[in-house]
Amino acid sequence: AVVRCVGKLNSNRTALFLCDMQEKFRKTITHFPAIVDTSSRMLRACQIIKMPVFVTEQYPKGLGHTVPELGDLSVVTVIDKTQFSMCVNAVMSALPSEIDSVLLCGIEAHACVQQTSLDLLEKNFQVHVIVDAVSSRNPVDRMYALDRMKSAGCWLTTSESAVLALLRDASHPHFKEVQKIIWEPSLDSGLLQPGGREPSGGKL
């Protein structure tokens, strides 16, 4: 029988990609504090579950380094790049061979995030875009990028949904520790409104 691919997550075969959340973008990216806050939750949860995490910085000499609010990166692979996609040799060569699925957070949705997702799809990875952890300077760019990524074959999901999918069971040995992260009050950005739009102003 043919097994249908429905995008189920397995923590043993999944990595977290955190794309270019750097100082220079702080004042220009829509809902930047919320994006970083949600990405930080994903980072902490994935570290607890002991999943591989990769962080990139786009031309840090000009755009600065990753903002400290993202969290403790002392044991995380941080790679600088100039190409927009995160799929640089330094990342892909360090990715464990058993990984076939990637959780993707960061900026900008229509540039580095989108190009990363398309490159990963071409390499036969399942890509799960965390919609409450992805943004752009222009909300319209974000909206169309999410449409483009979904059409290409990415799974669009939320941070909480992804984390619970990784845990699968309340009997998971790290469930209570991760549950505390999920229950923390989140920043209200409007990014999860139906259709990806805020109720007023047309922002995403």
TrEMBL record:
It comes from the Eukaryota. This is Isochorismatase-like domain-containing protein. It comes from Macrostomum lignano. Belongs to the isochorismatase family. Residues 14-160 form the Isochorismatase-like domain. InterPro entries: Isochorismatase-like_dom (IPR000868), Isochorismatase-like_sf (IPR036380), Isochorismatase_domain (IPR050993).
